[in-house]
Amino acid sequence: MNKTELVAAVAEKSGLTKKDAEKAVSSMLDVIVNAVAEGEKVQVVGFGTFEQRQRNARMGIDPRTKEKIEIAASKVPAFKAGNAFKEAVNK
Known about the structure:
The protein is an alpha+beta fold. Helix content is about 45%, strand content about 30%. It is built from three helices and five strands; from the N terminus they run ααβββββα. The chain has helices spanning about 5-15, 20-35, 85-90, and strands spanning about 40-45, 50-55, 60, 70, 75-80. The protein has a three-stranded antiparallel sheet with strand order 1-2-5. It has a two-stranded antiparallel sheet with strand order 3-4. A hairpin with a 6-residue loop joins strand 3 and strand 4. Helix 1 packs across helix 2 (about 20-35). The two termini are about 20 Å apart.
């Protein structure tokens, strides 16, 4: 399912117009992205948690030259599914 299909499904389930559903979905995604980018944790009970995790610097190998290279530390977004979400998937 892509974003367009998600918007259509939200519009159908909620009774909103597609335009209003698109605004709602886009706004929700923007809020989550901005919060996680600022280091906040976004927890939606029953669905899951979005958070920022720190990835430490590490050594890697350049596949072309086989030389060792240092991969810099970085921040990455992470999602952990909630129990209700996991149960729904496992049914």
